[in-house]
Amino acid sequence: MMLRRGFILFFPQLVGLLVVACCSVSIVYMLACTPKGDNRQLALPRVHSPTAKEGYEVILQEREEQHHNYIISLKKQIAQLKAELQGRSKQLKNMEDQHPDPLDIQLDHSNPEKAQANLLAFLRSQIDKAEVHSGIKLSTEYAAVPFESFTLQKVYQLETGLTRHPEEKPVRKDKRDELIQVIELAVGSLNNPEGDVNAKHRVYTASDFVEAGIYRTEKDKGTLYELTFKGDTKHQFKKIVLFRPFGPVMKVKNENVNVADTLINVIVPLAKRASKFRQFMQNFREMGIQQDGRIHLTVVYFGKEQMNEVKSILENTSKSANFKNFTFIHLNEEFSRGKGLDVGARLWKGSNVVLFFCDVDIYFTAEFLNSCRLNTQPGKKVFYPVLFSQYNPSIIYGHHDSIPSLEQQLIIKKENGFWRDFGFGMTCQYRSDFINIGGFDLDIKGWGGEDVHLYRKYLHSNLIVIRTPVRGLFHLWHEKQCLDELTPEQYKMCMQSKAMNEASHGQLGMLVFKQEIETHLHRQKLSSKKT
């Protein structure tokens, strides 16, 4: 009973102690968790203090300022990142402008302003890429693009070769028009200087051009021109630098071309030369009959000498190759290449056909026959291939034990031959275009001249003349006879052609100095014996 009464008396005290302990723990916890300011610890106001409310408001206000400052800091970082991103985007755009992909430049005609801006940006980038403002590091001395110099009257070329002159008048229309336009633009720039438009300036003309202009073309970028004009005094000059940037590659046409049914009529004028005709028919049989198969042969023969032998060769080829697509025309008169080709073209009775005017000393491949088809179009295009002319095999292979076979000789390199860029005799065109242009000038007799006249007729027409070197057409070497019956102009052309046909410059030099070389070798041999 007494224990129970004592417990009842002790219980309130125990509860009080527990309450005091809990309060102490709460106070310690609140002190520990009170947030700190920048330089001091925030004091917790006492619960019963008259300033407790104000203290809590101070704490809340400082907390709000901390969060506000943190938000401001984040906004600043975001703004910096945006600025950096814009800078990087601008750098990327500049790089794209400096190195655009021509295929990505779309000239959208529905938006002319955008198309013009895209094209202008591309043309400006061409100037940056070319060697205009600064040089470009090159790996070797052979990588340099040389300049050519020009005057009002002449162009001085570096890469001349045997068939060029170290200087020539710019007779080609595109080159002449190009240089005239450049000089006129430079004169206009001098007479309209940037800056003070009211200031008085001397009037420049083309005669002030100092004849020392230079230019060079980088095929993928453009042409750089540097022109010098006379200044106000003897030792003063005006220099104008111009650049013609090349535009982006643009698609012009996308079409299918089917030449499966396109027949070629090969027309060969001939007089005598039966052995050469036999060699020609071997080539014709292999390339024309066996590999191509879409071909007709017309032989126009002059005179009677060796005619039966030529007809026999033709008939034997017809039987052995089962080839019936040929025509033999006999003209009992003096040989005229132009007339033979003209007669052969006009006597064709079939539908419109591609005519290949050929000579008996020509070797062609099946690849060339397709080039002939692909580069001709009735009423549109004619084809004037530049063939590779073979040098005299006896000179080329004189130091060999034997002369290689014909197929092994026909390799395009400077020791073996040259591009016959002065010859216009081998040509492909549709018969309708040949008839409409008026054919050959039949007043020209013998060798030479008729091909140039026909070529000029095509140039004076609205037809496109495709003039390009081809790797599948060869002129086989043969000794050329320049007859006394030729006119002075024809004889001169014949002799020039004869000289060109023999050998390269270096090989002809070895022949000219042959005795000097042999004397030198003999002396060396004697001196080696003495030692």
Automatic annotation (TrEMBL):
Reactions mediated catalytically: 3-O-(beta-D-GlcA-(1->3)-beta-D-Gal-(1->3)-beta-D-Gal-(1->4)-beta-D-Xyl)-L-seryl-[protein] + UDP-N-acetyl-alpha-D-galactosamine = 3-O-(beta-D-GalNAc-(1->4)-beta-D-GlcA-(1->3)-beta-D-Gal-(1->3)-beta-D-Gal-(1->4)-beta-D-Xyl)-L-seryl-[protein] + UDP + H(+)
Q: Which residues cross the membrane?
A: 7-32
Output one GO MF annotation: glucuronylgalactosylproteoglycan 4-beta-N-acetylgalactosaminyltransferase activity
Which Pfam families does this entry report, sorted A to Z?
CHGN
- Which E.C. number(s) belong to this protein? 2.4.1.-
List the residue ranges forming a coiled coil, or say none. 71-98
A single GO BP term for this record reads: chondroitin sulfate proteoglycan biosynthetic process
InterPro entries from the UniProt entry: Chond_GalNAc, CS_glycosyltransferase, Nucleotide-diphossugar_trans
UniProt subcellular location: Golgi apparatus, Golgi stack membrane
Q: Which UniProt keywords apply?
A: Coiled coil, Glycoprotein, Golgi apparatus, Membrane, Metal-binding, Signal-anchor, Transferase, Transmembrane, Transmembrane helix
Q: How does it sit in the membrane?
A: Single-pass type II membrane protein
The principal localisation class reads Golgi
Alphabetical GO CC annotations of the entry are: Golgi cisterna membrane
Family the UniProt entry places it in: Belongs to the chondroitin N-acetylgalactosaminyltransferase family.
- Alphabetical list of PANTHER family matching this protein: CHONDROITIN SULFATE N-ACETYLGALACTOSAMINYLTRANSFERASE 1 (PTHR12369:SF19), CHONDROITIN SYNTHASE (PTHR12369)
Task: From the Swiss-Prot or TrEMBL record, give the protein name.
Answer: Hexosyltransferase
Gene behind the chain: Csgalnact1
